[in-house]
């Protein structure tokens, strides 16, 4: 079942190499006081350390385990032209050591503690996480605080690792026609916004990247006031706060760089791109400029439109047998093998509403494009039923509750909310707001946000495969990148 409400799709992965754990003693010196900022009915508490770093703790004592995460409000959107991909490259290099922890040792120590860990980069944020037995929380906090403040490695480590990043780009984008097309779609949709650049970076920028580019990005953005520690699990908030003060609290404060506004100018007409690549099937993606959800309280008209677009996407493709599936992929004269929608309205940058489809045999990309737009036009003309909307809101509620069975999901939602500047309980507030969306509001946004002047269309034009190139599964990849 799709979770249309999710604010972040965290790509889970594991680095696991065995080694005996080391004993990590915490300094006994008193730590500066921290300020309590907020709390929720679920027991989550938010604090700010004296150096500006924030801490969010969510107790959940159903199992003797804990998830520890560090989220930074920095991603590929904070890069500058010529160094695209540096946020993701730094994420890789954070595993390459400190003065006291040699390259590769971080992962071995976490595994020896009985844990698993990884990291992720997106346009909006970078994050690091470990899931460990709750009694080993102090160990991973010491390790993570050390590499946050003292990440260092020889140039040769970067020279090797940047080749790993390049190969990741080849495998996930260059050799995946649909993913490569989506990359071109973003580059064509946005002119001023840094969302136009791929998270993994352009290959020419990766070729030209230097160790100092990465070190400079770390020094600029990895400052306490630009980060939050999130701990969820079998923990006691005051104990976690004491550990945070003894580890992260000793990192010297630093200024968060001033972010320049890079607002996307108004689009003045439809844009189209044809993307030619060896592929077996065509693929079409329609990107409509959309309003962003900026708050979950004291909503503006733009916020209400963003909520209604979330609901519209769920009505179109949020469950098996939804409108796009019924209208485009079923029946003797079906137009598409697959069709989907997505409302990317939560983020630090501009929002998009995407419609995508793969033509069925005997049909072409233009047929799919017309059919996708016709379904939105049908909603604008005829509206939707209250029962149809109730179905998707019930699914949102169920998936939100089910997600709370996962410590990782709880921690990820808290970290994502912090990155977006939303309150701790934003998911509960958002669910309540979505329950209040009316059929009339969904019909209204379908009529107002899908004009040509807000549209960029990308079409994958299949080309013959070279004789020595095997066929590969074709899929678009998410905007985030995992180490």
TrEMBL record:
Biological process per Gene Ontology, one example term: proteolysis
Region (Disordered): 462-483
Domain Peptidase M16 N-terminal: 60-200
Keyword Nuclease among UniProt keywords: no
Record carries keyword Hydrolase: yes
Listed InterPro entries: Metalloenz_LuxS/M16 (IPR011249), MPP/UQCRC_Complex (IPR050361), Pept_M16_N (IPR011765), Peptidase_M16_C (IPR007863)
The protein's name in its UniProt record: Zinc protease
């Amino acid at each position: 079942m799709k979770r249309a409400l999710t604010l972040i799709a965290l790509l889970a992965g594991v680095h696991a190499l065995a080694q005996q754990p080391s004993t990590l003693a915490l300094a006994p010196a008193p730590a500066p006081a921290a300020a309590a900022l907020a709390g929720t009915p679920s027991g989550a508490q938010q604090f700010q350390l004296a150096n500006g770093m924030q801490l969010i703790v969510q107790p959940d004592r159903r199992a003797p385990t804990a998830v520890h995460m560090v989220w930074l409000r920095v991603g590929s959107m904070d890069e500058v032209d010529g160094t695209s991909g540096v946020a993701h490259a730094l994420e890789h290099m954070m595993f390459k050591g400190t003065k006291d922890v040699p390259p590769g040792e971080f992962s071995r120590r976490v595994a020896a503690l009985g844990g698993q860990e990884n990291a992720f980069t997106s346009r909006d944020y970078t994050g690091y996480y470990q899931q460990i037995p709750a009694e080993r929380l102090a160990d991973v906090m010491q390790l993570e605080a050390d590499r946050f403040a003292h990440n260092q490695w020889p140039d040769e480590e970067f020279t090797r690792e940047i080749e790993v990043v390049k190969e990741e780009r080849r495998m996930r984008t260059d050799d995946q026609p649909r993913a490569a097309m989506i990359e071109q779609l973003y580059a064509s949709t946005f002119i001023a916004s840094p969302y136009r650049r791929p998270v993994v970076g352009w290959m020419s920028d990766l070729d030209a990247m230097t160790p100092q580019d990465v070190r400079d990005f770390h020094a600029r953005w990895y400052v306490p006031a630009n980060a939050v520690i999130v701990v969820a699990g079998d923990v006691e908030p005051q104990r976690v706060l004491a550990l945070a003060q003894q580890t992260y609290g000793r990192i010297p404060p630093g200024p968060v760089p001033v972010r320049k506004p890079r607002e996307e100018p108004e689009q003045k007409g439809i844009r189209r791109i044809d993307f030619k690549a060896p592929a077996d099937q065509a693929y079409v993606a329609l990107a409509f400029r959309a309003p962003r959800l900026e708050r979950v309280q004291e909503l503006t008209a733009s916020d209400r439109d963003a909520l209604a677009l979330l609901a519209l996407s769920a009505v179109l493709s949020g469950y098996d047998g939804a409108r796009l599936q019924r209208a485009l992929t079923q029946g003797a004269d079906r137009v598409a093998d697959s069709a989907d929608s997505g409302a990317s309205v939560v983020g630090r940058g501009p929002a998009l509403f995407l419609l995508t489809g793969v033509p069925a045999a005997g049909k072409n990309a233009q047929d799919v494009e017309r059919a996708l737009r016709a379904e939105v036009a049908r909603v604008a003309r005829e509206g939707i039923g209250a029962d149809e909307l109730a179905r998707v809101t019930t699914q949102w509620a169920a998936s939100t509750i089910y997600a709370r069975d996962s410590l990782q999901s709880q921690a990820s939602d808290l970290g994502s909310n912090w990155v977006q500047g939303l309150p701790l309980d934003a998911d509960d507030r958002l669910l309540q707001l979505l329950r209040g969306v009316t059929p009339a509001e969904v019909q209204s946004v379908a009529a107002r946000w899908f004009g040509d002047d807000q549209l960029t269309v990308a079409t994958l034009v299949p080309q013959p495969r070279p004789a020595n190139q095997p066929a590969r599964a074709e899929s678009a990849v998410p905007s985030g990148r995992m180490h």
